[in-house]
Design goal:
Bound molecules: adenosine-5'-diphosphate
Distance between the termini: 27 Å
Shape: elongated
Amino acid sequence: MSPIELSKRQHRIIDIVKENGPITGEHIAERLSLTRATLRPDLAILTMAGFLDARPRVGYFFTGKTDTRDLSDEIQKIKVHHYQSRPVLIEQSTSVYEAICTMFLEDCGTLFIVDGDSTLVGVASRKDLLRASMGGQAIETIPVSVIMTRMPNITMCEKDDSVIEVAQKLISRQIDGLPIVKKVEVGSGYEVIGRITKTNMTSLLVDLATNETS
Ligand code: ADP
C-alpha cells in the first residue's frame, strides 16, 4: 500500500488537533485564518485516512496515527542507548571453554573481550566458539584471544548514534551485534558500555508498530 502524501496544510491541521484537540472544525479554521468550507476536504481526507477522528458536538481529535514522513523523522531521533542491552565482557586470557560457559550462563550471542585495563580488544561470536571446538583443540587451555576477531577490525558505535546507522552496520558487516563504546580518558582504547543486537532492533520494530518507542 503506498503511503498517503499529506499537504503542508494537512500537517498543520494535524499539529493543531494534536495540541488542542478535541477542537471543532470552526476553531481549526480560525487558527489557520481560513473558512470552515475551505478546510472541509482536508478534514475529510484526514478523517478517512485515520489521522483524525470526529465526534459530534465535541470536535476533532488525534488518533495517534503517524504519517510515514513523521515516522522516519521519529526513527532518526532514536538513539542506540534507548535500546541497548548490558554488555557481556570477558578477559582475553579466559579459555574458550569458559567463554562458551559464559555465553550459556549469560544467554547472549556475542562476547566482548577486554584486556586487564577493561579496554576492548576483541569480539567472539557463537560460530567463532563453535569453530574452535570442532578442531579437536584443547579448548580448556586455548585463550579466547586466539580465536576472537580483534581490534582494529571491530565494528563499534557510540551511545548517541542513531539506531538506523547501527542497523545499517549490522546488515552491511553481516554481524549480530555491536559494542557501544566510549573512548578511554588516557590512551587510545575504548571502554565497552553497552551492547546493541538484532534482538534490540526487533524490539524497536515492535515498539514502532505499537506506537511505544522510548
Ligand atoms: P555468528 O558467527 O555466530 O553467526 P556474527 O554474525 O555476529 O555471529 O559474527 C560473524 C563474525 O563476525 C565472527 O567471526 C565474529 O567474531 C565477527 N564479529 C561479530 N561482531 C563483530 C563486530 N562488532 N565487529 C567485528 N567483527 C564482529
